[in-house]
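Contributing new records

If you add data, match the layout below exactly. Sequence lines come first and carry their own label; structure lines follow with theirs. Keep one chain per record. Anything else will be rejected by the validation script.
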Amino acid sequence: MERPQAASKTNWFARSREGLEIYPAEERLVDSANQFHLWVFDSPIFRFPIGFRERLVAEGPYRSAAQQRPWEPGSRPEDCVDSATIERRADSMLWQEGHMQE
């Protein structure tokens, strides 16, 4: 089960599509009603050249005082990991990409 924003994208399009909501510069702002604009690419292989490269869903934060919202009953994803696992995976990803130095 997805969080509300991602679920809306999936309900309207498909799980394999990437979408983008833009917070524009003031000179491009369109705010004429209480609505949001979501741009979704009609390609199952298109990926934005920004953001994360792989999925990581966790029950706790990675080196942060932030708090994760609890999952609704029955909605916790099967691949959801705990804080210790996210720390190991994140460190591994950073080492592989050369973001951390010995």
